[in-house]
Amino acid sequence: MNRNTRPTPVxxxxxxxxxxxxxxxxxxxxxxxxxxLAQFLVVLDASIVNIALPVLGDQLGMDTVALAWVITAxxxxxxxxxxxxxxxxxxxxxxxxxxxGTAGFVTASALAGLSVTGGMLLGARAVQGASAAxxxxxxxxxLTQLFPASTDRAKALGIWGAVAGIGSAAGVLLGxxxxxxxxxxxxxxxxxxxxxxxxxxxxxxISRDPASIPGRLDFPGAATITGALVAAVGALSSIEQVxxxxxxxxxxxxxxxALGTAFILIERxxxxxxxxxxxxxxxxxxxxxxxxxxxGAAMVALFFALSVYLQAxxxxxxxxxxxxxxxLAGALVLVAGLAPALVGRLGTKRTLVGSxxxxxxxxxxxxxxxxxxxxxxxxxxxxLVIGIGLGGAFxxxxxxxxxxxxxxxxxxxxxxxxxxxxxxGALGLALLASLAAARTAALETAGAAGGEALxxxxxxxxxxxxxxxxxxxxxxxxxxxxxxxxxxxSA
Length: 491
What we know:
This protein is an all-alpha fold. It contains 17 helices and no strands. The chain has helices spanning 28-44, 53-60, 64-92, 94-113, 118-146, 150-182, 186-189, 191-205, 219-242, 247-269, 283-313, 318-324, 326-346, 348-367, 375-402, 410-445, 450-478. α4 packs antiparallel against α8, α6 (150-182) packs antiparallel against α12 (318-324) and α6 packs antiparallel against α15 (375-402). It is a multi-pass membrane protein.
């Protein structure tokens, strides 16, 4: 791309013509550390609460379906508003929106920890997710400005992807330690001092934003895509309560389809779309985002179900449940570090397919765990295989999504992959949690004991996550490289 003839989009949106790139920091690696710390918090908060769910559910009077919404209430506004957050950052400044989003995230975290009712907690989680939707795309834009050279940017994006993957796994361990030692409120309060550190450090490392870029905000596009996501998750969640054929379920499904169609039509006709649809002509980007959508669905549902299974079925306390997931987290971190070497030897596509197949195998193994499972016999082996598969799949799916993307579109590609992960997580959890609850109810009706019935429900959920991983492997396996894509395996 010739930067003199085409604007440089650095977020999940098309940028109008603006000023040329400027140096934002003389300490860019230190600035990247601060940005990555903020990204770590954003991803961590989708998983850290999992271990605390049974405890806070007892104290706030929330049943299993309501507990699933503690996760969904965060993931849904995060995924649904990411694209609008990027557009706002383009208009009003990346540094400014990053700081606004971080401040909102810190405030909402404090309110979540102070919650005395389930409704208050869900409201605080929704504000957390909306704030994260401002923070994350702005951070990606700042990253692309800090590292304009393709080689340095690839390293920075690799660190970014590794931090996101590690944050998902580390959340369950940290959540167990905090819940056992300080109570469930600590999983939210921990964000406050870290967020304040980010708010203090970043203005010292990154220069002020240039003048705002004029342009019209695509609010119709943002409204329709957010409404479509809310309706889709609502339809999936209502299946467990009222059934497939209930007017509420059907009405929400129709609304989701109609709003999704409206979004596509709006984006095709508007001069400044929220998502320029032409970017999906890059087959690598499209395939990578579809794989990440499926991987996000599997990841969020897995960490939710595994945390509840260990405590509600096997009787682990919060600390033991967190420590029991240390092998999974350790395997993920180790493979995340080795993934670049694996890609260099095998290529992105083979590494991704192999990782997803390993993930599916581990999930199928876990689905066979009984209600009286022994950790060493039934949990440890699947956890290690799942961690290896997750670590390789997350990094290589991110790599595939930016394969062949020109330097000026790196921010756009990064924003889309983040959105795909969050949307997949919201939809996957809603679908599989409803499936698990329905299976548990059927087993209880048939006379199964409480632990056996719960185990049967979780088994179906783990089978569902394995199915997502297998479909992802199929998508990656048949993906054709774009003609202009040239994967640099040695990078």
